[in-house]
Amino acid sequence: MFRLLGLVPGQDFGVEAATALLGHRADEPLRQLVAANLVQRNENRYSLHDLLRMYALRLAGGETSRRTRLLDYYLLNAEAAARTANPDFARLPVPELPGDLPKHEIKTQSDAIAWFDAERGNVVAAIPHAGPAPVAWLLADMLRAYFFFQSYRVDWFVAARAGLAAAVEAGDVLAQAVMHGSIGLAHFAVSELSDAVVEFGRARELLRRQPDDRMLVSLLINSGIAYQQLGRLSEAVEALTAARELQPENVAVAFNLGGTYLDLGPLSKSLANVERVLELAEAQHLPHMKLYALDAITEVLTYHGKFDLVQSFLDEAAELRGQVPTELAHPVGAVSAGVMVTMHEGRTKEALQAWLQGLKVAQDGNLQREEADLHDSIGDAHRELGDLDQALAAHREGLAISVRNGYVRGEMENLAGLAADHHAAGELQEALELALRARERAEANELRVRAVRVLIVLARVHRSLGDHAAADQTAREAQALAEETECHLWDRELREVLAQPPANGGSTSS
């Protein structure tokens, strides 16, 4: 037993891993090794001192078959955990594995995440040791969803790149495509969107050589999300629609189409897609996706201006959130969903506190796009409360995060917020320049729904500058865009700017 423990790739291990190496129950040999001070025990985990580990590894020599059993043990349980935690993710098929390998009791999402938490270091460390064998890229593939939701970005890049190297050495084209896709998703997770698109493109090119519809759908979905965040919304719709044609029942396709139309409009298409998510999530028993759908519906209804319908979905989401593992419970949504309605109702201090709480959650989880959005909302609340210094600071921070991460929607929103701040401060030329920059970002990136807000801010600035013709024209553009996109969140502000009479019977000055 001591000799074989040198084959464990990580820092500690459980009795099941030792059993996989030994070929029969390892409890008693481990007990004896602990008693002899050759193995250390901490609750249900065991470890070796570094020098003893080196000695054990030297004794193990060329125990190739035993190492293979250990890797197969990790793969068997990683697959079970992956499919339990995130059954909606497409994965490579796993070959039949030996029937005598230890199997963990993985029945719930919490069980699955607990297993990954315990064995993450071992599994990641095992991948480079597997050589050009399928277990290398299969283990990396099983970790993908866990890494995505748990934010282990460094481990993700290590695992996926090691899996890719193994696939290249083995000449497995499909595995190479899947690993490029995983690397792309890791880039996306750290907001390196352009790098993500490059990796997704490499993966899709490989799939032309070896077609696989399931993997292609996954890549199309992730490409669509990246295009959406980059402001290339028509390309996002094209990719996601292609995915829907291949898999009409795919819940992720509907969810991301809903998010894309939330930016592009019309909002009725966004609502139809997120309602489809709700339907599919219930049919496929995906509680976390149902929760995401409920949060999305509240957001779409808010931009739709249907504030009276929001509360029932908020209540249902709040009830469901307690039944979903914390790691999958969309933590920012837990504190920020529905707050726009609170703000719209004039409860600005209450909204500000909710957004500040959401900001802390986003910062703790390194969710930078959400952080940028929250800074924008926080800035607007501070301005409404008359604290322009705090408003400017929040919008500047949101803008900096957005620019750093290539997040064009966040850039546009925070530019509009800054324009409104400077307008409130009477700094009209600065406000005009910022509003025009926000408009340029909106038009260049097809951000049609939120462009309504930008145009309203710009119209107000024109009005204050005395350029009433430009103010009227911009306000009418905002009104037309609101009708086209079905965005009525800012109807009250739009009516105000339209109702302001031009000076001197309609003459203009600049």
What does it look like?
With 510 residues, this protein is mostly helical. Among the domains are: 4-62, no CATH class; 249-319, Serine Threonine Protein Phosphatase 5, Tetratricopeptide repeat (Alpha Horseshoe); 331-506, Serine Threonine Protein Phosphatase 5, Tetratricopeptide repeat (Alpha Horseshoe). Helix content is 74%, strand content 1%. It contains 25 helices and 2 strands. The chain has helices at 15-22, 27-35, 50-60, 64-85, 109-129, 134-150, 153-170, 173-189, 193-209, 213-229, 233-246, 251-264, 267-283, 287-304, 310-321, 331-336, 339-344, 348-364, 368-384, 388-405, 408-424, 428-444, 448-465, 468-485, 491-499; strands at residues 40-42, 45-47. A two-stranded antiparallel ribbon has the order 1-2. The longest helix is centred in the N-terminal third of the chain and has 22 residues, at 64-85. It is elongated and about 90 Å long. It starts with 14 loop residues before the first helix and ends in an 11-residue tail after the last helix. Mean pLDDT is 92; it is low at 503-510.
Please render the helix and strand layout as text.
Blueprint: H1 15-22, H2 27-35, E1 40-42, E2 45-47, H3 50-60, H4 64-85, H5 109-129, H6 134-150, H7 153-170, H8 173-189, H9 193-209, H10 213-229, H11 233-246, H12 251-264, H13 267-283, H14 287-304, H15 310-321, H16 331-336, H17 339-344, H18 348-364, H19 368-384, H20 388-405, H21 408-424, H22 428-444, H23 448-465, H24 468-485, H25 491-499
Antiparallel strand pairs: 1-2
Helix pairs in contact: 1-4, 4-5, 4-6, 5-6, 5-7, 6-7, 6-8, 7-8, 8-9, 8-10, 9-10, 10-11, 10-12, 11-12, 12-13, 12-14, 13-14, 14-15, 18-19, 19-20, 19-21, 20-21, 21-22, 21-23, 22-23, 23-24, 24-25
